[in-house]
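Handout, page 2. Input:
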Amino acid sequence: MKVEAIVAMNVKGFLDNEEGLKLYELAVEASKHGPCLEIGGYCGKSTLYLGLGCQKGGGMLFSIDHHRGSEEQQPGEEYFDSDIFDDAEGKVDTFRLFRKTMEEASLEDTVIPVVSSSKVVARSWSMPLSLVFIDGSHSYESAFSDYTSWAPHIVPGGFLVIHDIFPDPEEGGQAPYFIYKKALSSGLFVEFSMTKTLGVLKRLETGNVPETISGMRDW
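Output:
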């Protein structure tokens, strides 16, 4: 499948096509040097761009998501969608749609779904990564946990990619921008590119990732 065909698939998600094409471009390059990983696969839209990039680069993509939806996607909340709600279980379940998307794109041999929370998976993760894409829960605690859990696994020259960067609080939530700034101030990363709300940082040789959010609440 070609990356240009993704738009026609009309997969649910909040990723702009231009941002998706940037993910594809990054994954093509990064996957030549090691596996890539995303946090927040949802129904598979970002996974398509990253997965096709990894497929072209000859690499693999791990996609972490508990597939129970974010806080804002629960019944009664702003982004609730009945299409992702399992009436029999009485819960949000996006995994069935995610699997369908991967099957339609012939990415089942490239994308490895990890159905769990980012924090739980990170406890026993040891594999170096060439790219980490953070697009999970946008609460400060969750975003910071994703950053501190996964940034140390990115190899020098690899990429940390964060979605929904809004420097202006009037335009969107601030948690992704918060960890973006923390990554820059760590000395571990430098700015690489910005495509709409998709911020890309490149890993340097030295730096320091804080272990806890304690004492860092400047929001």
